[in-house]
């Protein structure tokens, strides 16, 4: 009996501990930070200081950065918007106003404030938050509003709900944020140049910009462009002094990237030392500067690699249409594909760097658009033709259907492939003209590749001759013509033949088969053979033997 009693007491104790622990665990955290006192050196807050919600506190703080938008009795009272407990009470009144105004100035210059994202509830609960969020339906006592870069480390702008003993809870800027106000203001506050400007230029103009910003942007852009022009001229002159071909090519390839980098550098230095623009301008100029640096660096890498590849391979100095360069044609096409892949990878890498550094989606409030994938669809639809051409150029490089230097017949034009670029194929016609064909159209159109696989081919010379012509003598004429041609350009002579392929009222169709070894020279060989055959047939007809049918021009037409 005693044993059962003890077991019952143990079970009750375990149940009590379980319930007590569960209840303690289920208790929600305190909806505010409890402190003994808040800002003892400031005294009681005036009635116009509304700190009941995060939005009310931020509204007063942003007005603190504007000289004319604060009440007349504001001096010495703006410090109530901050948690100044880390400062000595005797300096809180003098430092509070300055810190509040400085923080308001920094936020105005570095952030585009989206007031819809700042909660206007005393408990800080976000009613628009999805049920899957970790803080859904929970009161908040600390809110992270923004992060501003400070010497490469994000500095948080945070609001906290603080409750002094015997007083109502209020929302104030956190003590940690207050400690970072001085270095933030030193980095992003007005520069010496701006302080030197007259008061008239520091008055509001439009779009929440000041007049000095309206005038400073075109001035800074002009200085950046002038610096880029000077850099381009200097590099052009230095490139002319380079004696080696590779050095000269590197200077030419580096001129545009260095020009872009110079413009971006002048803009960056000007925005940090001379003109510290407001958040609206900074949100536009900062991504442009980041894009300029990334573009310059990646273009320099790609251009220098291409110069090195051209020097190593030496394809530009080779006539790739010649038969002995068959393997070189394949290698040149693959290297061109590697270049295109390199450019694509570099572009995607640089695009990601720009987006991550500039934080475009958050800056412009496009997070919903980006998360829904709508922006991706828009960009994909707009660039569908470009993407199709890029993928088609990679397809050619992989399946080797047309290599650089191959002889092809495209839409009746005899050409050789001169270049395979991202969006177009450059064909060199037999008469010296260039055909520029979109890659997507080139791959979707049937064309003849005379060089593919077995380069040997038969060139067919078609004649309309009289029915009484001596075919055996024609075979003799073909043999004599082949004897006069360069044997290096001819294939197996046993493949040569003369065949009667048809007849009609005007005469018979006679085909002369000329075996050619190299498709890139077969056109010239066939033209020479046709010329000499016509000359021999004309001499036969001068001997009194009819060779060409006697047909009136009207009937022939």
Low-confidence stretches: 16-27, 360-372
What is the number of E strands? 12
Shape: elongated
Ends apart, CA distance between termini: 129 Å
The amount of helix comes to: 40-55%
CA gyration radius, whole angstroms: 41 Å
Spatial sequence of strands, sheet with the most strands: 8-7-6-5-9
- Give the rounded overall mean pLDDT: 76
What's the helix-strand series?
HEHHEEEHHHHHHHHHHHEEEEHEEHEEHH
Multimeric state of these chains?
Answer: single chain
Largest sheet, if any?
5 strands, antiparallel
Give a description of the structure.
The protein has 557 residues and is of the alpha+beta class. It is 52% helix and 14% strand. The chain is built from 18 helices and 12 strands. It has helices at residues 2-26, 54-64, 89-110, 175-179, 181-188, 192-196, 211-241, 245-274, 279-313, 326-358, 360-363, 367-371, 374-382, 384-399, 439-444, 471-484, 519-542, 553-556; strands at 33-35, 142-150, 153-164, 170-173, 407-410, 413-420, 424-429, 434-438, 448-449, 457-465, 497-504, 507-516. Strands 8-7-6-5-9 form a 5-stranded antiparallel β-sheet. Strands 1, 2, 3 and 4 form a 4-stranded mixed β-sheet that branches. Strands 10-12-11 form a 3-stranded antiparallel β-sheet, with helices on one face. Strand 11 and strand 12 form a beta hairpin. Helix 7 packs antiparallel against helix 8 (245-274) and helix 16 crosses helix 17 (519-542). The radius of gyration is 41 Å and the shape is elongated. The N and C termini lie far apart (129 Å). The model is unreliable at 16-27 and 360-372 (pLDDT under 50).
